Amino acid sequence: MRVNPNPYSDLLAAIDQTQQRIDTDEQQISTGLSVNVPSDNPAADAELLQNANQSSQTDQFLRSIGSIQGELQDADSALNSVVTALQQAISLGTEGANGTVNSADRAAVATEVQGIQSQLLSLANLTYQGSYVFAGTATQTAAYILNPSSPSGVTYAGNNGVNKVTVGSNSSLQVNLPGSQLFSASGSDMFQAIQDLINSLESGTTTTIGAAVNEVSAAYNYINTQRVFYGNGITQLNAQQTELNSETTQLAQQQNTIGGADLSAVITNLTSSQVSLQATLQAIGQTGQIDLFDYLK
User: Fold this and answer.
1) How far apart are CA 257 and CA 249, in angstroms?
2) CA geometry: angle 229, 234, 237, nearest 5 deg
3) 217: how many CB neighbours lie within 10 A of its CB?
């Protein structure tokens, strides 16, 4: 039987391998991951990279949804205030069309409607985080400005563009309606209707006041219909947010399945390796040949 005259090189190699296993096990226990560097498991590392990219994209979609949810809610709330104000204008106009109301009372009603006109202008110029919501894509421009020379008393200063936000891999959502569509549509021009009501209350007859009230009613009905856009948008965002949150949970579970360490098994392996290392060191210490430390010099 051939005996290795110098066994220390083999023992040192065994010690090095055991120490590497110990280091790996301790790192897995520390991080909770079975893949800490690509060389640990190249295939799993590639899967983890893909998973991380998907998670990053999902997080971006969720941030986009969060950034526009507030805008849609504010826009919907503003339109609710608009229809409430128009209802009030209709009631005032109906009161002013009563043949028993004298001119002084009609003038007082006209003043109240002017107050509603100012309120509507403010609502149409709603801003969210510094951007004008109803100005189309011209979000740094007030949607409407006062213009006494205009028949409606205002001028639309925005554009007809719409803003879209990507909220999923194959999903985008229109997040606004321009004021030109909401408040200045042909046949349902809110500002023109309110101005006509004011003019008729100041100098018109019950017939012209009644006609102006009908204009305001048409604007009221139209805006109430358009308002559905924002309600639907909020519903779609909430549904997409729920789906993305579910996807985030699934991706996290996949990441743990692919790269999570089996801590129970790792601890068992670590203990075994430590025992093995200690036994090897004891065996070296008990040998009567050359001292290990002399060998290492």
Assistant:
1) 12
2) 120
3) 18
Read off the pLDDT of each residue in 115-121 and give the average, rounded to a whole number. 98
Q: Is 8 helix (H, G, I), strand (E, B) or coil?
A: helix
**Alpha carbon distance 133, 149 (integer Å):** 25
Question: What sign does the CA torsion over 264, 267, 273, 274 have?
Answer: negative
Residues pairing with 171 in the sheet:
168
Q: Taking the complete model, does pTM exceed 0.90, yes or no?
A: no
E strands of the chain, at which residues?
Answer: 127-128, 131-132, 144-146, 154-156, 164-168, 171-174, 184-185, 188-189
Cβ proximity of 78 and 133 under 8 Å: yes
d(CA 49, CA 51): 5
The tokens for 61 are: 């979609």
d(CA 208, CA 59) in angstroms, rounded, equals 57
The predicted pLDDT at position 53 comes to 86
Residue in the structure block whose two tokens are 């779609």: 236
Q: What number is the average pLDDT over the span 113-117?
A: 97
Are 281 and 273 in contact by the 8 Å Cβ rule? The answer is: no
Query: Which residue in the block uniquely carries the two structure tokens 């999570």?
Result: 260
Of 120, 96, 118, which is closest to residue 107 (Cα–Cα)? Answer: 96
d(CA 52, CA 255): 8
Domains identified in the chain and CATH numbers: 71-229 (1.20.1330.10)
